[in-house]
Amino acid sequence: MLHKINKLQFIFVAVFSALSSNVLTQAIVNIEDLRREGEIGFFTSISASLDASRGNRDRDYYSLQLRFDNNSENAESFLILQQSERKSNEITMDESTFMHGRYILVGKEQVNWEIFAQYSENPFRNYKKRSVFGGGLRYELSKTARFGAGLLGEDETDLAGKSMQTDRLGFYLHNIFELAENISFNPTIYFQPSLDDFENDYKTSMILAIDFKVNKDFKIMLQYSSFHDSDPPMLAEKSDESISTMFSYNLSEVWKD
Asked: Is the overall model pTM greater than 0.85, yes or no?
């Protein structure tokens, strides 16, 4: 039993500071920091955050995420499921559902191919739902740098029920800079322009993260995110920013023989 459990990795993440929505509820999600690139095997992880306050106004916020990874020498795949809810005086103010699945063909060359599907409901308060399906290539620029390019189909419904389908190009650039022995700076940039209106309809996102590895199991991450939608849904702002601090602890060693 313990031999099977040692394949499972449980991570509890506490988010104690956020100026906007949770990282995983943005329109463009930083998948680069969620990969287990080069790790062989089956992995399961669970993440959770809880924030509550009592006084003049009672506030409750929770977020729960479940993740599965299955990696081999020829292919890597993962599935992420997340549910979050924000309440004020027992009234639900914001509720979000997020799902993302990705499959990557891994070869000996510097270029890998990947396909992905994503679905979210009310990802950052101004979309009722958004679904994306696409694929493309992932190029290894260096040992730490990656460049991605592909095509994706986007289907969005705003809070008024208006639906819009858009075909987009998708580009991303990710790198890891070692600032010290246990400190790294991980910037990621996304750019998704519309095929029909390249100049006036595009989404961009810049995510800057600093990881502090206290030891092999405990990590602290500081992250700043900036998102811009040149053609946002009704009543939504074009730009959105957030900053968060997260703690994660790897309990996989506890379950080993």
From this structure: no
State the CB neighbour count (10 A cutoff) for residue 244. Answer: 20
CB pairs under 8 A, 24+ apart, for 75-78? 75/103, 75/104, 75/105, 75/106, 76/35, 76/36, 76/37, 76/103, 76/104, 76/106, 77/101, 77/102, 77/103, 77/104, 78/34, 78/35, 78/36, 78/102
What span, in angstroms and rounded, lies between the C-alpha atoms of 208 and 14? 19
For residues 33-51, one letter each, b for 16 or more C-beta atoms within 10 angstroms of the residue's C-beta and e for the rest, the string is bbbbeeeeeebebebebee
The radius of gyration of the chain from alpha carbons, rounded to an integer in Å, stands at 19
User: If you search the block for the tokens 């029920």, which residue do you land on?
Assistant: 161
Give tens-digit pLDDT for 74-125: 899 989 888 877 777 666 667 788 899 999 998 777 888 999 999 988 755 5
Q: Is the separation of the CB atoms in 164 and 153 below 8 Å?
A: no
37-42 contacts, C-beta under 8 A, 24 or more apart: 37/76, 39/69, 39/71, 40/71, 40/72, 40/73, 41/7, 41/71, 42/7, 42/68, 42/69, 42/70, 42/71
As a whole number of angstroms, the distance between CA 123 and CA 128 comes to 8
- Furthest C-alpha separation in the chain: 60
